[in-house]
Amino acid sequence: MPGSRKKEAGPRGEFRLVPVLEPIRSYIDGLVHPSARGDAMAAARHRTFIGAHLGAGLTAVAGLPVFLAVHGAPDALAVAVFGCLVIPLALAWLLAATGRFVTAHLLSALNHAGLVLTVGAVTGGPASFAMVWLVVIPVEAALSASRPAMIGAAAIAATAGGGLFAADALGVLPPAGTSGLPHGAMMLLAVLAALLYGTGLMLGSGAVARTGERLRDLNDARYRLLAEHMTDLITRHAPNGAVTFVSPAAEGLVGVAPSELHGNGLFARVHVADRPAYLTALGRATAEGKPASVEFRLRRGASASDIRYIWTEMRCRPLDDEAPAGTRRQVVAVTRDITERKQQQESLEQARSEAERANRAKTRFLATMSHELRTPLNAIIGFAELLANERVMQLDAVKRGDYARLIHESGYHLLGVVNGILDMSRIESGNFDVLAEPFALRPVVEGCCAMMALKAEASGLTLSAEVAADSPEIVADKRALKQILINLISNAVKFTRTGGAVTVLAGVENDELRITVADTGIGIDPADLPRLGAPFFQCGSVYDRPFEGTGLGLSVVKGLVELHGGRLEIASRVGEGTTVTVRLPRNCDAARPPRTADVVTALPRRLVREESEAKEIRKSA
After folding, report:
1. Among residues 227, 372, 424, 528, which one has the fewest Cβ atoms lying within 10 Å of its Cβ?
2. How many other β-carbons are positioned within 10 Å of the β-carbon of residue 475?
3. 467: which strand partners?
4. Burial 293-302 (b: 16+ CB within 10 A, else e)
5. How far apart are CA 294 and CA 439, in angstroms?
6. What pLDDT does 279 receive?
7. In this predicted structure, what is the pLDDT of residue 505?
């Protein structure tokens, strides 16, 4: 049976002084109570107590025949002393059976005190050799590592010693040598018992110490094994926050040797803006003894010139959770790279912002379309009803002509709105075919200005065009270039007050076509400049804007310019005017980007139907 309990008894090797003691150690292991076998230190203390008490009790039993042979039949005092010497056998059994460690220690202390009082009372009181045994009582309790056992044993030893001194002072103790016991035999028996008992305590304390060292070494080995194979950085911090241990993961996470992070090396790599949060988390763990976590940016790389930060998360907790209040503790921290998680969070935030922006754009679009479609439709319906009831209304030819002109203008406006939407849809879907051809620049620019001259004159503006005389032919989509010019000139005329001027400049420089449309209009707020060119975007509120339009004109221009491989530049100042510059390659056919229909944002099917209807309108117009 003892052999079957070796694995349960916990650590081995504590009593291996000589091979002969191995069976004894195995037997004592088997006596350890099951409640203590799960804890190596508790099992070692139980073995120490059981071994020492078994040794003391068996020594007394073995010495009894010798005593009887020398002294003969024992008297009452000898029986009392022998009873005290064999009681440790019962205490060993009590601990093995119940596992009540503190109770067994206190009962052992009482038994030792009773033995000292019994022997000391007849061997000189305070001068008795038995007084030395009082020292053994607290020493034995100290090996238990139990504060109640140590306090109780010290109180019992002090009470026993004080009782002998008090009895001697009162003269109630018999004179030394009156007990009838041979002093030499009792001294020999007491010394032998003390030696054997002390040897048991010595072996037991050595076993407990070795068990503790082995457990510490095992824990350190496990700790280092875990630290060396974890990809997360493990650090140990002194109460003042200085780093005292760094795992090898520092090379993978930070890109430097672990020794570079000792002391204040880790703190020096924390981003300046994140250092207060870093120190707050460490301070919470060291001063308050509470776990804390913090996210901060950490500089990576060995070179100070290569400043590259990664996002990390540090979770720290104190090593001693039960330290008294006000005591600063050491801290163990685990730091991991969360850069990817941060990027995902930023991507989600951007996606959320884009969704909110799209929702606002939809609201603006609906508000704009409500105005741009409802107003001309109301005009068409109203004037059409008047024409249908001309007999009742008694309309003359002039009024009929005016109503027909207003219906025509309203329909033309609606056609322009639909065309703008369809053009933007084709551009975004990659279905706008750029038909590049060589043509001269001057006739196109002058023709577009001539088309807008009447509108500019009606608005009281000066419209002028200047095209370099030596401008060579360009290769581009002539139809698209005209649409770009008309949209830009139309916007300039629309947003320029009476008395202003719109200037168109065009020329070719370094194989690049440059077209500039400048006006002296109302200008654009700097906050709106980055968003110009977005579909349906209009500066200011869509509900109180004084200018009509869908916000698609500049979007179409931007799309057509990009299809030609060019770029659009806008400079403006509120109250002074706006300058829009279009830069296109001289040969757009060779420079334009390939079509990318896989990045299409599809418009509703209703707009597709409207496109076919618009084609029919164009045919009939």
Report:
1. 528
2. 19
3. 506
4. ebebbbbbee
5. 65
6. 92
7. 92
C-alpha Rg value of the chain to the nearest Å: 51
* Beta pairing class for 462-467 and 501-509: parallel
Residues 95, 48: Cα–Cα separation, whole Å = 11
Rounded-to-integer distance, Cα 609 and Cα 160, Å? 110
Tokens of residue 445, six digits: 């620019």
Q: Give the list of residues 6+ apart from residue 312 with CB closer than 8 angstroms, or none.
A: 233, 253, 295, 296, 297, 298, 335, 336, 337, 338, 339
DSSP-assigned beta bridge partners for residue 514? 507, 583
Say how far apart CA 129 and CA 183 lie, in whole Å. Answer: 10
Residue 205 in tokens: 């304390």
Task: Please say whether the beta carbons of 506 and 514 come within 8 A.
Answer: yes
Q: Work out whether strand 243-246 and strand 501-509 pair parallel, antiparallel, or are unpaired.
A: unpaired
Q: Which two tokens stand for residue 452?
A: 């807008």
The answer to whether the beta carbons of residues 131 and 116 sit under 8 Å apart is yes
Strand order in the sheet with 501-509: 462-467, 501-509, 512-519, 577-585, 567-573
Q: Are 2 and 96 in contact (CB under 8 A)?
A: no
CA distance 49 to 107: 12
pLDDT in tens, 31-56: 888 888 877 778 878 887 888 788 77
434 near 477, Cβ under 8 Å? yes
Residue 550's alpha-carbon distances to 114, 208, 416, 570, in angstroms, are 108, 88, 10, 19
> CA 144 to CA 102: how far, in whole Å?
8
Helix, strand, or coil here: 333? Answer: strand
219, amino acid identity? N
Q: How far is CA 148 from CA 108, 138, 202, 209, 477, in A?
A: 14, 12, 22, 21, 99
Q: pTM (2 decimals)?
A: 0.43
Map tokens 């754009």 to a residue.
361
Mean pLDDT, to the nearest integer, of 306-328?
80
Containing H/E element for 439? strand 436-439
Buried/exposed code over 381-395 (b: 16+ C-beta within 10 A; e: otherwise): eebeebeeeeeeeeb
- pLDDT of 8 reads 42
**Residues 50, 144 contacting (CB under 8 angstroms):** no
Amino acid present at 28: I
Distance between CA atoms of residues 361 and 186, nearest Å: 107
Q: Are 160 and 134 in contact (CB under 8 A)?
A: yes
Measuring CA to CA, how many Å separate 505 from each of 449, 476, 489, 580, 592?
Answer: 11, 18, 11, 10, 23
Distance of alpha carbon 182 from alpha carbon 201, whole angstroms: 28
| Tokens 């990027």, located at residue | 343
Q: Give the residue among 522, 458, 471 at the shortest CA–CA distance from 496.
A: 522
Hey, what amino acid is at 523? Answer: G
**Token code pair at residue 427:** 């551009």
d(CA 388, CA 269): 83
Distance in angstroms (rounded) separating the CA atoms of residues 262 and 243 = 5
Rounded CA-CA distance 444/202 in Å is 111
* Whether the Cβ atoms of residue 124 and residue 116 lie closer than 8 Å to each other: no
How many residues are there in the chain? Answer: 621
Q: What angle do CA 298, 299, 304 make, to 5 degrees?
A: 160
Retrieve residue 552's tokens: 């698609």
Q: pLDDT: is 370 or 98 the higher one?
A: 98
Q: Residues 604-618: pLDDT tens digits?
A: 433 444 444 444 444
